[in-house]
């Protein structure tokens, strides 16, 4: 219990909202009314696991895996922007949940609760992204940052610089 209490708020929001959203997908997201003739009407409940719901579930699982791996002692690559990936997944989860709720007819309370949970996940991902930078801050005393601009123009060395303006006009860089 102490380990969970020590987690940052953003991680708690993503984990709690993600697990509850996965469970919410098993509830009835739609009540579809089917008419069999003029007098017989049947209401059928559909859970959230259609195509959009399956995509939503896979995105939530991917987010949960990344968040859990980041909080364990497993070392992840420092070159990968994990906070940006969780932010993108959180936004995608929220957008798909809203679209699923708007596109599907006869939505129930579980679908609205799913949108709320998706918003909690997206907010947790935003808080995680805003607190943890994905880049390394270099001090003045520390090592030089790696050169990412290998194609950037460089100053010519002393022996390659033209000695006169006439040479400069004739020489092409």
* Helical proportion, percent range: 40-55%
Query: How many strands, which pairing sense, and closed or not: the largest β-sheet?
Result: 2 strands, antiparallel
Element order, helices and strands? HHEEHHHH
> How confident overall, as mean pLDDT?
81
Low-confidence stretches: 147-152
How many beta-strand segments? 2
Estimated radius of gyration: 27 Å
User: Number of helical segments?
Assistant: 6
Distance between the termini: 66 Å
Strand percentage lies at 5-15%
Output the structural class: mainly alpha
Write down the overall geometry.
elongated
Enumerate the strands of the largest sheet in spatial order, edge to edge or round the barrel. 1-2
Provide the descriptors you would attach to this structure in a database record.
two-stranded antiparallel ribbon; single chain; 173 residues; elongated; mainly alpha
Structural topology:
Elements: H1 2-5, H2 9-24, E1 28-36, E2 40-47, H3 51-71, H4 82-103, H5 109-131, H6 165-170
Antiparallel strand pairs: 1-2
Helix pairs in contact: 2-3, 2-5, 3-4, 4-5
Report on this structure.
53% of the residues lie in helices and 10% in strands. It has six helices and two strands. The chain has helices at residues 2-5, 9-24, 51-71, 82-103, 109-131, 165-170, and strands at residues 28-36, 40-47. It is elongated. It starts with a helix and ends with a helix. The model is unreliable at 147-152 (pLDDT under 50).
In short:
The protein contains 6 helices and 2 strands. The chain has 173 residues and is mainly alpha-helical. It has a two-stranded antiparallel sheet.
